[in-house]
Records
---
Amino acid sequence: MSETRTLADLKELVAGTPAAPEAAIKREPKRDALGRAYATGRRKDAVARVWVKPGKGQILINDKPAAKYFARPVLRMLITQPFLVADRYQQFDVVCSVVGGGLSGQAGAVRHGISRALTNYEPELRAILKKAGFLTRDPRVVERKKYGKAKARRSFQFSKR
């Protein structure tokens, strides 16, 4: 005995269920005893451990000011993007330790870590940062070198004689 349902029956069933599960979830802020939020950011081979707390907008990376650690303006702009999008510029102090990769990957890791730490501190910012794409870890990494090749895909130069 199979029971067939019409589209109208399914609409009635759906109308009786609660709203979307994301709207029902109320996220709690995750802060330590000192009032800081922690998160880990990753990009390429770089890993950044980030602590965010209310302050005057000072950003320290490996015990150096961000302007000194990231000399290129593009990299400094990259790490401040989450604050600008969330309209929290100059409201949080950031302490960060980053290892691995190059400067570009490290800046991406710091941005990812700041975004995740901000969502831990203020869960309401999650939708804004997610829409901007700052909470998604960029999965692209360097392809490994294969045997019989000069690099990952580059072959050795061919000569007939």
---
Amino acid sequence: MLEIILIPALKDNYIWLGINRELAEVFIVDPGEAAPVLAYLREHSLKPIAILVTHKHWDHTGGIEELVSRYPDLQVYAHALENVSSVTHHVKDGEVFKLSMWPEPFTVIHIPGHTLGHVAYYAKPLLFSGDTLFCAGCGRVFEGTAEQMLASLERLAALPDDTQVYCGHEYTQNNLRFAVQVEPENADIAKRYEAVVNLRSSGKPAVPSDMRLERLTNPFLRCKQNVAKFRELREWKDRF
């Protein structure tokens, strides 16, 4: 009776819904726009109880105010550094909280780099990683430093193999096209790239992945605490 579904939004964003069908209740992760979420809730007679915000960028927060206006009891979780509107709970690193409709508690992981207050939400085995860890890639370093971003990625990479990575954008095919250039001899990357090309050509998402696959095929998780290497890769990817 538990399900994670994606709602495509904007150009290439994914809004995630965690659904308890028995209770007809939902949590929402990073609603960049409200309309497709509201349509899904109406169609399936679901009630949202919480919004989990990974970071402040408009394509992850643009739908919050309208959702809260429609559902005034919504609880909104975000880090204080992100200055997100309508927040009811300012989360911090290591905080654990429970949503009544979901069996596993959520652990907050503060992962600065993309923004200074970026967080991930981990409810074993689910990881909502926003724009820090992408499938086969990572986010741009906007507010933080390369050192912070690499440390944040390594924290996420330390999670168990079966961790399911639910990121904020469908960048997987392009990320793997880059990864092939970085590690042309890596058979795991080549195999994953072919599989993702087939998925995307069929109109299917390439998200989520799992942490075991990320460690094998994501070049940004293979820097092994080498900040100079990470910075070089990130600058290369910015130009790619």
